[in-house]
């Protein structure tokens, strides 16, 4: 283990209080002692010693538009002075206009009428989507989901999240999902192109419907036991795995044949993380339900929700009271969400993100050429991955990545005379993938800085 910087006396007092008074159930300390932060701006956060850290994970993609974004902060401040709160059974302008904006956008892109339903965050919105799809399928409680998929840790969401450790002590809400292999090409069978492997995965899934003895399909009644397939178009916690472009189109064809809904979980990848409002847009399919959260409000005031096709969510089939949250569609959140849409619609925001992502990915590819421990790099927009492996460039090496994360948090790297730390996020099936989700507002010099800091960490890791 690396020698982590000693906490200050003030930090020690706070950490002692945390150890005594705070639940650890909602906390994961990736380093010891953990940092305590005091301010943030743009792509940076500062600790209590005023040490700056370049953040390349932005609160798990919740702060897509940069810390303390002045425009979005001002929208929140203005709303505080007008209508800061109102019970969710009452209407306010922000809820209606934000719903319209999302629904009209979906109509233009997918050709489908639909409605928007808000809640306070991603997991809660997953729960609402489960109600919608169960209701639409006459109460079917079984779902398909992907190996490596993550949809949250509430009871319902954890049942469709592939990690057993999130369910182990709590049992199941309904039934555990049927987890289907994701086309993770870097760790897939050799000898197939990415597109061939995507088709292969779809064909293996389609075999479940060949005969009633596969256990999911009744050919006599043409009914499936499963209500929906929950997908992250680009896997998040699973390691920012990007599937081939043919994959979802072929998968959706199988789902439509058998009356299975597609739910697109956009909680991490939505709001331009991949260069489009929704990451599913890259794959030329029509989702039945979209779940969103996180970056809708840039992490300022929790707000998430779902968009669903009219047939699934209109008031006749999903009447008032079907689900409820006291703080759903809160005016502070909807005000920031509206301003976010206005901000991103004023320029070709998607093109900007794609250009920055291409530049960042080229830098990662250059590092891959120089450091054999980088087994794979990939990216779509500013959702980027860098897989750390052993000397063979393939065997997962979690220990080395853990070392790099700790070294980054020392705050002792120097670039052009500036002392900095680097905040990285760890993901992947083997916890050996750097999942890079920088601010979408990151500058090109900051991308260069991030690459230089990554290079220093790689040098430390390979020469220790």
Description:
The protein has 464 residues and is of the alpha/beta class. It folds into two domains: 176 residues, Aspartate Aminotransferase, domain 1, CATH 3.90.1150; 271 residues, Aspartate Aminotransferase, domain 2, CATH 3.40.640. Helix content is 35%, strand content 17%. The protein has 13 helices and 18 strands. A seven-stranded mixed beta sheet has the order 4-12-11-10-9-5-6, sandwiched between helices. Strands 1-2-3-16-15 form a five-stranded mixed beta sheet. Helix 3 packs antiparallel against helix 10, helix 11 runs parallel beside helix 13 and helix 12 crosses helix 13. The longest helix is centred in the C-terminal third of the chain and has 22 residues. The model has no long low-confidence stretch (mean pLDDT 95).
Outline of this structure?
It is built from 13 helices and 18 strands. The protein has helices at residues 9-21, 58-61, 70-80, 93-110, 122-136, 155-159, 194-206, 247-257, 310-313, 331-345, 349-370, 398-408, 444-463, and strands spanning 37-41, 44-47, 52-55, 114-119, 142-146, 178-180, 217-218, 223-224, 226-231, 261-265, 289-292, 304-309, 374-380, 383-388, 413-415, 418-423, 426-427, 433-436.
CATH homologous superfamily caption of the largest domain: Type I PLP-dependent aspartate aminotransferase-like (Major domain)
CATH topology type of the largest domain: Aspartate Aminotransferase, domain 2
* Strand arrangement in the largest pleated sheet: 4-12-11-10-9-5-6
| Beta-strand residue percentage | 15-25%
Number of strands: 18
Question: How many distinct domains?
Answer: 2
SS summary, helix count? 13
State the share of residues found in helices, binned by percent. Answer: 25-40%
The dominant shape is globular
Rounded to the nearest angstrom, the distance between the terminal CA atoms is: 11 Å
Low-confidence stretches: none
Please state the average pLDDT score: 95
CATH architecture of the largest domain: 3-Layer(aba) Sandwich
Report the structural category: alpha/beta
Cα-atom radius of gyration: 22 Å
Indicate the CATH class of the largest domain: Alpha Beta
Largest sheet: 7 strands, mixed
């Amino acid at each position: 283990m690396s020698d982590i910087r000693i906490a200050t006396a003030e930090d020690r007092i706070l950490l002692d209080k945390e150890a005594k008074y705070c639940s650890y159930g909602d906390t994961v300390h990736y380093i010891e002692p953990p940092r305590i932060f005091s301010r943030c701006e743009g792509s940076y956060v500062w600790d209590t010693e005023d040490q700056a850290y370049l953040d390349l994970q932005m609160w798990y993609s919740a702060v897509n538009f940069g810390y303390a974004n002045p425009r979005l902060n001002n929208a929140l401040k203005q709303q505080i002075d007008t209508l800061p709160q109102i019970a969710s059974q009452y209407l306010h302008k922000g809820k209606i206009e934000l719903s319209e904006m999302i629904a009209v956008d979906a109509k233009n892109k997918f050709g489908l009428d639909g409605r928007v339903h808000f809640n306070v965050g991603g997991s809660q919105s997953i729960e609402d989507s489960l109600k919608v799809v169960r209701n639409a399928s006459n109460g079917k409680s079984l779902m398909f989901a992907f190996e490596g998929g993550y949809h949250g840790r509430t009871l319902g969401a954890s049942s469709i999240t592939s990690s057993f450790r999130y369910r182990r002590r709590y049992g199941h809400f309904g039934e555990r999902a049927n987890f289907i292999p994701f086309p993770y090409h870097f760790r897939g069978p050799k000898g197939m192109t990415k597109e061939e492997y995507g088709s292969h995965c779809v064909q293996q899934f389609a075999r479940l419907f060949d005969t009633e003895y596969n256990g999911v399909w009744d050919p006599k009644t043409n009914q499936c036991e499963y209500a929906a397939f929950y997908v992250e178009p680009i896997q998040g916690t699973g390691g920012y795995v990007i599937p081939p472009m043919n994959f979802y189109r072929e998968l959706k064809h199988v789902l439509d044949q058998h009356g299975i809904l597609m739910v697109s979980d956009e909680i991490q990848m939505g709001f331009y993380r991949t260069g489009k409002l929704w990451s599913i847009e890259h794959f030329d399919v029509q989702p039945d339900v979209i779940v969103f959260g996180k970056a809708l409000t840039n992490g300022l005031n929790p707000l998430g929700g779902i968009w669903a096709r009219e047939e699934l969510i209109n008031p006749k089939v999903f009447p008032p009271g079907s689900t409820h949250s006291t703080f759903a569609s809160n005016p502070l959140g909807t005000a920031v969400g509206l301003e976010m849409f206005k901000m991103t619609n004023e320029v070709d925001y998607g093109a900007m993100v794609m250009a920055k992502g291409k530049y960042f990915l080229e830098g990662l590819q250059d590092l891959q050429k120089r450091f054999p421990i980088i087994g794979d790099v990939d990216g779509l927009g500013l959702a980027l991955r860098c897989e750390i492996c052993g000397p063979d460039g393939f065997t997962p090496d979690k220990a080395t990545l853990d070392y790099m994360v700790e070294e980054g948090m020392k705050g002792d790297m120097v670039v052009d005379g500036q002392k900095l730390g680097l905040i990285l996020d760890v993901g992947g099936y083997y916890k050996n993938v750097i999942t890079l989700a920088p601010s979408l507002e990151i500058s090109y010099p900051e991308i260069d800085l991030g690459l230089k800091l990554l290079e220093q960490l790689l040098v430390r890791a390979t020469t220790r």
